[in-house]
Design a protein that fits this description.
The chain is mainly α. It contains 11 helices and no strands.
Length: 214
């Protein structure tokens, strides 16, 4: 994942994965994505900032390493011979899981001005699957945007909507004005569940399949 172990000099105290795991933990625990700093990572490892620069050349390298490490949590990649639909499903579910586990990491990567390869590798695989399905370039790019924004929007809603409080909020509404919501108050949080996300993804994939077949 990194050239840390191949750099000249004394044997490093930490492995590349340990450094990137520390960066990922700092990102997850920071009050905001902007609060992520080299100093915080160095403090977590118990070393000085200049020592940390002996492991990585920049903050961007730390973020990239943390991103690649986070992606490994999604398990093995789908088989290269899999069809376009299976490959897309795998990438979208992996991105959703990443966004759920590490929302600040995703926000941090998206805010970077430099082109960190991590999320672009995922985009490359998704675009290749869409093109292999038979979509032209314009349609494939639009579909890519739909899928990426579906993940980001859904994961953002899951993180911010406090689903556990939604039934109580609905019960406070006047039932006469909101009869359907009131009747479904106990089940309303289901629309922000991971199962709802997966159902929506299947509808999107079915729509793409219908587009390809027409």
């Amino acid at each position: 994942m990194s050239s840390i172990s191949s750099r000249p000099g004394p044997r490093p105290r930490f492995s590349a994965d340990e450094v990137f795991a520390a960066a990922l933990a700092v990102i997850d625990e920071a009050p905001s994505a902007e609060a992520f700093t080299m100093r915080r990572v160095a403090d977590r490892l118990g070393i000085g900032v200049m020592t940390l620069y002996g492991y990585v050349a920049s903050k961007e390298e730390l973020i990239e390493g943390a991103t690649m490490l986070a992606f490994t949590e999604s398990g093995p990649d789908v088989a290269p011979a899999a069809g376009w639909e299976e490959r897309l499903r795998h990438e979208v579910l992996a991105f959703h899981a990443l966004s759920r586990r590490h929302p600040r990491l995703v926000a941090l990567v998206l805010a970077q001005r430099s082109a960190l390869p991590g999320l672009f590798r995922m985009r490359e695989r998704m675009l290749e699957a869409l093109l292999s399905a038979g979509l032209d370039h314009a349609a494939a790019l639009r579909a890519l945007g739909v899928l990426l924004n579906y993940v980001l929007g859904f994961a953002g809603a899951q993180a911010s909507a406090a689903p556990i409080d939604l039934p109580e909020r609905i019960r406070e509404l006047p039932a006469g004005e909101f009869p359907r919501l009131s009747s479904l108050a106990d089940e309303y949080a289901e629309h922000l569940s991971d199962e709802a996300f997966e159902a929506g993804l299947e509808w999107i994939l079915a729509g793409l399949g219908a587009t390809v077949l027409t």
